[in-house]
Each structure stands twice: as C-alpha cells, then as structure tokens.
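Researcher: I'm comparing several assemblies side by side, and this is the next one on my list. It has 589 residues spread over two chains. Same procedure as the others: predict the full complex and return the structure.
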Amino acid sequence: MTSRLMVEARGVEKSFGHVHVLKGIDLEVKPGEVACLLGPSGSGKSTFLRCINHLEKVSAGRLLVDGELVGYEERRGKLYELTDRKICSKRSEIGMVFQRFNLFPHLTALENVMIGPRTVKRSTRSDLERQAMELLDRVGLAEKAANYPSQLSGGQQQRVAIARALCMQPKLMLFDEPTSALDPELVGEVLNVMKDLAEDGMTMVVVTHEIGFAREVGDTAYFMDGGVIVESGKPMDILVKPQHPRLQDFLSKVL
Amino acid sequence: MNPANETTDPQGSVVSASPPLETVPLRHYGRWLSAAVLAVLVAMLIHTLLSHINRNGVTNDQRFQWSTVGSYLFTSSVMHGALVTIELTAAAMAVGVIFGILLATMRLSTNRQLRYVSWVYLWFFRGTPVYVQLIFWANLAWLYPTLSIGVPFGPSFVTITTNDYVTNLFLVAVVGLALNEAAYMAEIVRAGIIAVDAGQLEAAQALGMRRAQSLRRIVLPQAMRVIVPPTGNETISMLKTTSLVGAALGGGGELYRSIQNIYNLNYLVPPLLITGCLWYLTMTSVLSVGQFYIERYYGRGVDATRSSSSKFSSTLKRSFGRSPHTEVQPLERP
C-alpha cells in the first residue's frame, strides 16, 4: 500500500454568495477505503462531494485527489486555474452516481454505459460493447441492455448508472445519496452492488442516510452538521457509541 | 340494495352472481343539433364551389373555373415555381437551423461577450421585417460596391464585386430568409436546451465530457423533442414566406411569382390563386407527415412508454376515430 491519499481535504470551504455551506472540512481517504458522509439535509455533505470532482469550485482550503489539486495547479507559490480540457480529463478518472440517477433517457442501458468511453476516450465499439455488457452483467442487468431508462425501475436505473460510471474505469467513486430516491424495497439491490464494489477494493466516498450500510461497509464515517465535520472515526465506534450530542440526537431520529 | 346481503356477505360473492345491470350512456342532444347545422353549412359550401354564374358576358360560367385551375396546375411554369419554392425553403431552413443552433449556444455560453453578440443579432433580425431585410440585401451593392477579405484597416487578399452576387436573386433570397430565420430558430433551440434537466449536463460532465461534447451527445438530442414541433411550424411558415421573395426582389421564380406572372396576362386571378394554394397545401401536408416521423425518432426512450402509436395512420385514426373511452362497458353490480 502506498501512503498516498486518494482524497485529501484541508480546511475546505465553500460559499454560495453569502451562504457559507462548508466551513473548513478536513478529511483523508486512503486508496481502497470506503468513507461514508452522514448528516442532516443542508449540512454540506453533497456540496463537499461535488467539490471533489469540481462540479463545485472550492472557495478556500486545499482539496487534493490522488495527490493533485482539484481544479488548480500550483506553480511557484501561485494557484493557476486549470483549463476546461484538464478539468474534464481529471473528472473522467472519478465516477459519480447521483441521487436522481440522471441516466440519459434517449439512450438504451447499454448505450448509457458506453457513452462515456465512446465520447471521452474514443474507445472502439467492439471492445467497449463487450466491456459494457460485462459491467451490466455485474450489476445484474445484462438482459436489460436494450431497454431505455424509462422502462426500468428506480433500482435498475441506479445500477445502470453505477455501471455507466464504472465503464470509465475510475480510481475513485463518488455516491451522492444513491438510494434516497428509491422505494424502500429497491434500496437493497443498489446497496448490494455498492458492497460488491467495496469488496473489490474500489475507493468510495458515499453520502448516505443508510446507517446500516455505513456500519457494515464503511471503513470510516464522518458526521457533518452546519458545514463542519462534527464527529468522525470507525463507523462501529461513532455510530454505535456516538460522543457528540448532535450525532446522538441524529441517530436517535433515523434509527 | 339488500342490506341483508351486505351483512351476510361483505366480500360480495353473492351479489356478483346476479346479471350485470344495463348501462345507458349519456345522450348528447346538443351534438345532434350542431351536426345538423354543420351538414347544412357543408352542403352550402359544396354548392357554391360547384355553382355557375353569368360573368363578363359569359353565361353559365363555373363560379371557380375549376377547369382553369386544372389546366394550369401541372404547367411547367407552375411546377418549376413549386420546385424553386421547395429549394428556397430547404436552403433557407438548413442555413437558418445551423445558425440558430450556433446563436443559441452563444446565448447560453459562459462567455458574456458571446451572449451579448447573440442578443444583439436577435434584437436586430427579429425586430425588422423580413420583407425589408430581403430588399436590403438586394441593395447591398449600393452600400458596398466591393467586398474584401484581408487585414482589418490593412491590405486585402480577396475582393469581389458585390453586384455580381446580388443579381443572383436566389442567393439573395436564401441569405435574407436564412439570416432572419436564424434569429427565430435561436430562440427555439434555446428553449429546447433549457428544457433539458440540469442533471443531464452534470452527469455528462461527471463522465468527463467537455461542454461541447455534452451539448452534442446528451443535451441536444433530448432538446430535439422540444425543438422539432416549433421547427416544423417554422418550416411551414418559411414555405409560405418564400412568396414574399417575388414581390420584394421582383423575381426569383418561386411559386407565387410564377402564378402572378400568369394572372397578370390573363386576369384569371382567383383560379390561379387556387392553383397556387393547392401546391402550397400539398407541400405543407408532406412536411407535416415528415415532422411526425422526426418527432417519433427524437421521442424514443421517452414517448415510447407514453403511447403505443407507431404509425402515422394509426395516430390519424386515433385522432379522428372513436376514442375507446366512449365505449361503455357493462358494469358489475357494486
């Protein structure tokens, strides 16, 4: 194992106008680690996640992915903003799964999985199709390859979305409340795919309300409230014996 | 209702054994009246279309002179006029759509200068009549006798004589119509793009697609669902706007000009206008059918689950035929 961190945040802050959403986030994710971000709505979890692949610009602090600054380049004591091309190339190494799936409705499940490499890496069709079918098979949806998203259930759509992100062969996967928009009975199928992925050694940052998942699969858990990390540690410790009253209160309400 | 039944058998197995009640659909007496009025009006219309009058010393002449309409409908000058109209429409729309997409993406750009340029273009070309614009382009040589490509305020490399080009009325018509159309198309395309959920662009960006790639591969194909219907409108509108070309430029050879050339000689204005309208109607009808198939293509994955219609004819049947909801099924006794 290298000592290099996959994600490193030092005092990350983010403001939208006068609204201070992130007030100094410190966090470290090692390669192969599953980090779970928990916390009430509006605590800044999703915003922080979106900062990691530069969908949001960090206002202050240092955020590094795989040892490189997100969105900037440091040269002679100055931060130079990266070009659009470089930002996109870095993003292509980070997979992201959204709360509302965001599958492309005009493409079939298979085309959804292939579109990333087709467009960004210009992969050849035959190799890619085989690889995409393997991924669909891995999430248990090989027989749905020709279906459009509107013909799939929420859980199936989210699994296609995970396959779509994986097809770019990312070194890091970000999950933004992947099960929050699902019917309760469909949550399990998505969590199982994520669990398999974690067991395969994928580095994952997961924003979730699934306390059970965080306890079972997470290596570290962070509880956020009001733009700061209130408590962090091993999920088994902080989610079973929370120290901070805010986390105790949160857990008593969601469990 | 027998209360004894309800209490002894709340599941309803006893009552369901009895025969279904006859249901009487609601009678719409007003519709019978309106149908009668409509029938009389249609009869009057057919009668007047086929009636005869005494005119200019000719007794018992066909009121609409259908024989004249028939004799000019397929003459070479009329057919050539229709062809030029199609060519003008196709060329002006093709250029207009491409420029429109360009202007719409400029308008939605993160670059403020591009947004302003696009806005000013729209402001000018939407704000002045297309008729005036056509005449303006025809008179471009008065303002600029020569046009050059070269260094601004410096030497020029290529110089053309404007008059050599503005005498080509087809070219002037295409330029005039297309530049005007681009302004309208820009707004239609912009409406389509902003109708696509913002999450789509984010998902594309998260995969590492650049802005232009996400626009072309993800956003525009979905925006087409919103863009196609008003673009069909614009194409039909353009087909008819080409009739201004003859009047504005005094030539160009499009359909209306060809018709006008004929009635200027024989003064049979109404029959020739009907001849022209039959062609315009035929062409717009073909365009409507084409629009149906384009809409179906861009609705794939979205409209597929919404309706099962797959053929133009079946949609026609559904629109004009009896809707399944009007058929009353005998109800089971509650």
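Model: For your comparison table: Residues 76-107 of chain B form the longest helix (32 residues).
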